[in-house]
Structure to design on (165 residues):
């Protein structure tokens, strides 16, 4: 059973390799993995799932900025809301189905409860397993939108807010 701890700098190479494996398996993240290390280094706070001393998964909590489409959609109906974004959630494809993603999500939910912001996440429609997991964990669907990246790339996406309790 995986344990969750704050990500350390020495975890970054393993996280990059896992992100590459996830990308090969499912196309996540859609922006690709050419700049994976830089993307991970930009996280405000992050955790890893560790099983038998090996990093197997990752999640981050970042400030919710209005340029993120899911944050903009939330602020349309909650203009004064304090929000954070759950992001860069991934578990090595060979280690899925054992609860690591749920533990990573619950860790970020608990941290957000301590700090005060409501957590938001954007899930691409193609990632139905992730959408099923968020719904199973009680996340509230609040919008359907389009996620745009790069030059002219776009994909339908679902927006979710964390449970209140």
């Amino acid at each position: 059973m995986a344990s969750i701890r704050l990500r350390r700098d020495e975890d970054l190479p393993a996280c990059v390799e896992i992100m590459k494996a996830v990308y090969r398996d499912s196309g996540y993240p859609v922006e690709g993995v050419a700049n994976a290390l830089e993307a991970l280094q930009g996280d405000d706070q992050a955790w890893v799932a560790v099983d038998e001393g090996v990093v197997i998964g990752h999640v981050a909590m970042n400030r919710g900025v209005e340029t993120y489409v899911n944050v903009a959609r939330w602020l349309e109906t909650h203009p004064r809301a304090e929000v954070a974004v759950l992001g860069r959630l991934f578990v090595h494809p060979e280690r899925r189905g054992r609860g690591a993603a749920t533990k990573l999500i619950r860790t970020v939910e608990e941290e957000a409860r301590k700090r005060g912001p409501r957590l938001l996440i954007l899930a691409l429609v193609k990632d139905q397993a992730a959408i099923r997991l968020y719904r199973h964990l009680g996340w509230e669907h609040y919008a359907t939108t389009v996620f745009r990246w790069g030059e002219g790339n776009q994909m339908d996406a679902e927006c979710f807010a964390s449970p209140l309790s």
In short: The chain has a mean pLDDT of 95. The radius of gyration is 15 Å. The helical segments are 12-26, 36-41, 69-77, 100-115, 128-136.
